[in-house]
Amino acid sequence: MRLVPGVLGVLAAPVAVVAAEAPLHFRLVVHPDAAPAVLERQLVADIFLKKTTRWPNGSPIAAVDLRFDNPVRREFSERVLRRSVSAVRSYWQQRIFTGRDVPPPELDSDEAVIRYVQSRRGAIGYVSDRVETGAVRVVPLR
Amino acid sequence: MGECNGGPSAAPWARWCGAALSGLALVAVATPSHAQDTAASEDASIAADAPVEIHGFVSQGFILGIQNEYLARSKRGSVEFSEAGINFTKPLTSNLRAGLQLFAHDLGPLGNYRTQFDWYYLAYHATDWLGVRVGRIKVPFGLYNELNDIDVARVPILLPQSIYQADHREYLFAQTGGEVYGDIALPGAGSLEYRVYGGTLSSDLPRTAPEGVTVADVRVPYLYGGRLLWYTPLEGLAAGMSGQGVRFDVDYRLDADYLAGLQAEGLVPPEQGAELPVKLRVIRWVASLQYAAYDWELSAEYSRWAGDIYSRTPEFLPPHLVNERYYVMASYRLSPWFTPGVYYSGFFANVDERKGHENYQHDVAATTRFDLNAHWLLKLEGHLMRGTAALDNPTLNGGANRADLEPTWGMLLAKTTAYF
To answer: What is the pTM assigned to this prediction?
Structure first.
């Protein structure tokens, strides 16, 4: 899903909402011990923007991103965070340089994300839907 | 099995049972539970795994003032417009974080590259809805106060100066004290972000004063405030309210000629000496509205700042003054590397005196941001101004009175920033 730029951009927001029904090309993955069976989009957005930092059972969340130029990252950012990758980077620049927080780590590949999520309790990430997820748990996004 | 009675007359199995239970109780008290062990080891793992995060930036700008000067002596252009910062943060546990940022800048007559702590803190985040931060902390006032000296974190070179004055950072940007903060989810109604703080300002405040007046001392006995932002259920739409109260105790010294002039005009009593202590209490608030979703950022804010001045010279220093400040701003990221924006801002120095170009300042600005790569950007910006209410720096414009300056004037700015 690409947003129409320029003066038509203002019309793109409702288009993007409608287009959100299109199938996702990424999957959410969590540590095998993580609690949720399904995750709401808003909660996932809050997790990756660090507005929510703990699972319902109180354990800390360790979110991990893909690199900013990864196409899976772009789709995740637009479909879940409802912001472009550039807008999310701007959000994090604001928080970094005002001392509020730092962003989730960025990893180079789906395999690196899977290794990260598998090795950390409470971890959550996202990977391409073409990748074998191994021992990590895939969680549907609602 | 029955009760465990470990007394001397009890059956052997009962004495064994009692001893075992007593032993287990002692072990339970003396040793943390497995859940506590797990939480403690998770915390230790988080602290051990997380490196010290280091980020920094360097900015260099250029200002050209057309007709009048603002921020720097700029009628022939000025490069006295630089910033540099570096910060270090580290999570100590999953709840505890520490950080600091060093900052240096030069803005016309201000800064002169003196390095100072921009912020430093220890933050304990008990839950998502409750945290405590102590140290030197950026002041949450409106949508953008915390970003005023962070070029990389915003679109325009100059934020709307009606509310976010770049040359008043010592008074506006950070406070030393404590803050309580948190995010509260409102199921079905979005979420609330709150911040409440109290403390004081740096003791090293600027001592700019008109010719004939010297600021002998400035003290800030207290500062307090807060901000509430409601992130509405409509994606990207937020509304907020910020408020702040602060008191300045200023000791002025008037030179003989200046004092004589004031006495001749009846603005100060004949017995007034060179020493003039003044207490200034300022209450300011701002109402904010923002839509930031996809690649749009639309903002509007309205603010009033009210000052009460307590002195022996009410004819010279008006006892009560309210000014009015507002803006509307829009930007759109046309591509990952190009974001244009525009804004209009208005400022009235005294809501009871709106006539005369020295009492207002309107600013129409157009700005462009070019993200040349992931660590380097360039901005170009132009301003068309009507009014001179904010041109109150006596070191610029030859110290001329605002009423004597050109009512219509402008600025062109360019700035580049590298960051990591």
So the answer is: 0.84
